[in-house]
Amino acid sequence: MAAAPAPVAEADAAPKKGKKKLIIILAAVLLVVLAGGGAAVFMMKKKAAAEAEDSGDEAPVEARAKKDEHKSPPVFVPLEPFVVNLADRESERFAQIGVTLQVEDSRFADEIKLYMPAVRNGVLMVLAHKTSRELLERSGKEKLAAEIMREAVRPMGIHITVEEEEPPADAEVADAGEKPKAKKKAPPEHNPVVSVNFSSFIIQ
């Protein structure tokens, strides 16, 4: 009669083993799912990085650094309007022109104000040699802007060259088959004047 409890012990052991197997199987399935998800995320990130490289995009850090460089607002220096007689010979013409300079920073804006009488003198000298025909053309206005940019920094010892059309070679040189010698250009100096903006442009 003492050997009867043995089958009950065996019956209790069977469900415990079944639960352990089920837990092991579930853990294995969970590991497989997590590993697959991690691999998928890794592959997607790698693909996105490769596409960014192919499209020529720069690294996000560099892009943010470049954006930060241009966050500062533009600095403008308005000049008093210029009223000047033009160089027309057929009739008396004059121009009334408003100019605003965009400069690289507020420090240079303060500096250029100290040289303002010399700056205005240089601009007036340029305007006095212009004709109404020149200034009515878009190309003439663009050339004038380049010359004003040059005159704005000349009093501070900064020498900017304005590109001009090269005159045609002499007929004698052309006949002789000689090529005109190319002039060596000096490296351009940094110009703290970013642009010249016309606020008014009246020719009468």
Architecture blueprint of SSEs:
Blueprint: H1 6-54, H2 60-69, E1 75-78, E2 82-85, E3 94-103, H3 106-114, H4 116-128, H5 132-136, H6 138-153, H7 171-176, E4 193-203
Antiparallel strand pairs: 1-3, 2-3, 3-4
Helix pairs in contact: 4-6
What does this structure look like?
- The chain has 204 residues and is of the alpha+beta class.
- It has a domain of 100 residues: GTP Cyclohydrolase I, domain 2 (2-Layer Sandwich).
- Helix content is 53%, strand content 14%.
- The chain is built from seven helices and four strands; from the N terminus they run H-H-E-E-E-H-H-H-H-H-E.
- Strands 1, 2, 3 and 4 form a four-stranded antiparallel β-sheet that branches.
- Strand 2 and strand 3 form a beta hairpin.
- The protein is rod-shaped, with a radius of gyration of 39 Å.
- About 2% of the residues have low confidence.
Question: What is this structure, in a nutshell?
Answer:
This protein is α+β, with helices and mostly antiparallel strands. Helices cover 53% and strands 14% of the residues. It has a domain at 75-160 and 190-203: GTP Cyclohydrolase I, domain 2 (2-Layer Sandwich), CATH 3.30.1130.
**Head-to-tail CA distance between termini:** 133 Å
> What is CATH's topology name of one domain?
GTP Cyclohydrolase I, domain 2
Instruction: Report the β-strand fraction as a percent range.
Output: 5-15%
Shape: rod-shaped
